[in-house]
Amino acid sequence: MKPFTYERVTSSADATHAGAQTGAAFIAGGTNLVDLMKLEVMAPDRLVDINRLDLQSIVATDDGGLRIGALVTNSALAADATVAEHYEVLARALLAGASGQLRNKATTGGNLLQRTRCAYFYDTAMPCNKREPGSGCQARDGLNRILAILGTSAQCIATHPSDMAVAMMALGAVVEVEDKGGTIRRIKLDDLYCLPGSTPHIETVLDAGDLICAVILPAPSKGVHIYRKVRDRSSYAFALVSVAAVMRMEESRIAQAALAFGGLAPKPWRSAQVEAALEGNAPSDALFDHAADLLLSDAQGFGANDFKIPLTRRTLKAVLRTATEAAQ
Amino acid sequence: MTQITNLKINGVSQRVGVDERTSLLDLLRHHLNLTGTKKGCDHGQCGACTVLVNGVRINSCLSLACMHDGDEVVTVEGLGTPENMSRLQKAFVQHDGFQCGYCTAGQICSATAMLEEVAAGWPSNVSACLSGKVELSDEEIAERMSGNLCRCSAYPGIVRAIRFAAEGDTP
Would the ipTM clear 0.90, i.e. be above it? Predict the structure, then answer.
């Protein structure tokens, strides 16, 4: 591990100031960052420990939603009574991710900002445009079983590995960010992430020093909540494909179909086109196939991950079938 | 640079000065000679390094020692001794919860905290319901212990030992 300076901050003003310095990185749970630092995939000069900030609470918002502090652990969030009752898709996604030990350390903000698990990103002997811009990508023609089929570019086919973020995407979450000037802004989760394009090393719209303070969920939907995750082993593995769904029926027609997908793209994936095609229609196999056609119209496999295209179709259809039957 | 960190380990207050790059795992093993905690993968994938921090199980390999100022750490040495084993330690011995033993300290620390999580009503990925009392089936135990790998695959004995300890009978 490369040497770094370590400092503990106790106010968000100190955090954003320290975090804006060259080579600085925030550390919260550290379950991803410490690993990447050991491998020297990430080598911050200055580590800013934000664990003492007062960002550990989950509170109701005035408009019936929920404000989740950035330092709430994945375990605490999954076990929260309000989340279990009103945002089941989120609790299910959290519980489908990582292990008990990791969920106890991993935080809400850190989970959103975790890095891809692409093997080429992790292996410093390999070129990787995300780790070292301009060096190339060997994943396209290499071991890409777990990598993306949507939203990729010639430079990068990495996936975002989070389960939690997929559920939050389906729930329409908003991220609250404080910048180094103390200004607080809100970013839709969908707008937090950048697609790789020609700059795969830039993963979010956050600037140096920007601190995620909270994730805000809108008032809950009464619909059926499902998180379906397909992976190579039944526990403690990243998603090959996952689907988060919040579905509501009215008079035998789909009134709401909020869907988000994991394991497919460089960000948790949401398609307004797919949702619009489903909403207002009666559920049928043909409709579900049409939704899958729309979702996958631009999908591109790279060999070892070609299977994700039919797997996504089947997983989506299974979720839609289960959700619409349960919502009747 | 050396960071001075105050923490309590197995009930004993310690003031340690280690490089900020030192993991909690390396602090325990290399600096405090608490070698019961094992280094398996050193990347948070195997669970051999599991310890309790403020009563919560974590992978000590993925945590920097300097970040634990003020924390209370319990390792397998703090759970029991060969003469006075904890309930789970006894159950692991009596139900063949290990073969080579390398993962065992992590398994036992993990199971100790896992049973507290169950008592607190935390759901798991296989729980049908997200709230209410958890019925500790073999499937629940396996899911909740999935962060602890055993390359000898002593899993049936591990699950049996945990169930036995949890059920409250004398092993």
Answer: yes
